Amino acid sequence: MTQNTSLSYRDAGVDIDAGDALVDRIKPLAKKTLREGVLGGIGGFGALFEVPKRYQEPVLVSGTDGVGTKLRLAFELNRHDTVGQDLVAMSVNDILVLGAESLFFLDYFACGKLDVDTAASVVGGIAKGCELAGCALIGGETAEMPGMYPDGEYDLAGFAVGVVEKSKAIDGKDIAPGDVVLGLASSGAHSNGYSLVRKIIERSQPDMNAKFDGERTLADVVMAPTRIYVKPVLALLQKVTVKGMAHITGGGLLENVPRVLPENTVAELQKAAWPRPKLFDWMQAEGNVAENEMHRVFNCGIGLVVVVAAADADAAMAELKAQGETVYRIGQIRARQGDEAQTLVV
Q1: Of the candidates 251, 301, 241, 213, which has an alpha carbon nearest to the alpha carbon of residue 94?
Q2: Which of 130, 290, 317, 325 could form a disulfide with 33 if both were Cys (CB 3.0 to 4.6 A apart)?
Q3: pLDDT digits over 36-51, tens only?
Q4: Is the C-alpha dihedral spanning 75, 81, 86, 88 positive or negative?
C-alpha cells in the first residue's frame, strides 16, 4: 500500500456496516423489553424515560457492574447466550435490595473486531435479562476497537436505573435481634468468584462436556446465568414488610449480609438449613478450598438474603414460593457481642 492510497475506516479495522447490521439485529430484541415510561427507541444520541406517575416522591436508584472473568469461560466454551443475563442480573438485583423497581438498562459491548453473530447472541441474553427484570433495554454502546482486544474476545459492562418511593426505601436500619433471615436459592455461582472457579478447573482438568448434575454438563452448570429476583421480590414487598435484603455477590455470604445490618447485630446462619448445590462441593474438594473461604467468595447456593420480622417469616416464605422461588429459613438476627463478625455461618 503506497503513501497515496486512500484509506478507509474498514482498512483501520472498524467495520461500520457490521455495526449497522448489529443494530438491526438488536432493535427487535429491545422492542420486546419496552415498558411504561420509554419515550423513543434505539438509535438516538440519548434515551428518554419518564418516571411512572404513580410515584409520589420517586427516588432514583442506580447500579453498574460487569460479568468479570466468567467471560473467559464464555470464550473458551464458545457460549455467549447467557452472559448477557448475568450482566443485567448483577445490576438489577443490586438495586432491588433497596426496594427499587428496575426501569431501564444500558449496556456497553467492546471488542477488537465485531462478530455480529456473537454480539447479537450476547445482546439477546441482555434482552432476556431485561424481560425477566421488567425493565427496558433502552440503549447502549457497541465499541469496535482494533488492537485493544484479542480476536474472539470482548468486554461487557452495563447499568440499571430503578425507582423507589422515598418512604419505602429499604436500608436495614430497623433490623433487630429476633428477626428471621430467609435465603433465596441461587442458580449456581452466578457471576462471582470466577477467577477461583477457573483456577480450580485449570487444576482439575475435567471433561467440561461430561454429565455433571443430572442431565447438565459441567459447562452447563458453570455457565448457568445469574437468577434475577426482581419480580418475585417486588410482589413480596406488596404483601410483607421487608426490613433488609442483601444480594450475595463478590464477598459471598460473609461480606454481603453485613452491608445491610445495624452495627449492633449479627446474622447467624445455619449451613445445614439449605442444600449446597453440587458445584460448590465439587469446587471445594477439587480446589481444597477452606470452608470459610467458600463462604467469603461464593454464594454457596443462596443468591439473595431477605430479613423479616419473625411474625412475617411464614407469610414471606409462602409468597416467595408462590412466585416461583425456592426459599429457605437460613438463620436469625441476634445481638452482637463485642467486635465479632457480623455474619457467621455455623
Answers
A1: 251
A2: 130
A3: 899 876 677 888 999 9
A4: positive
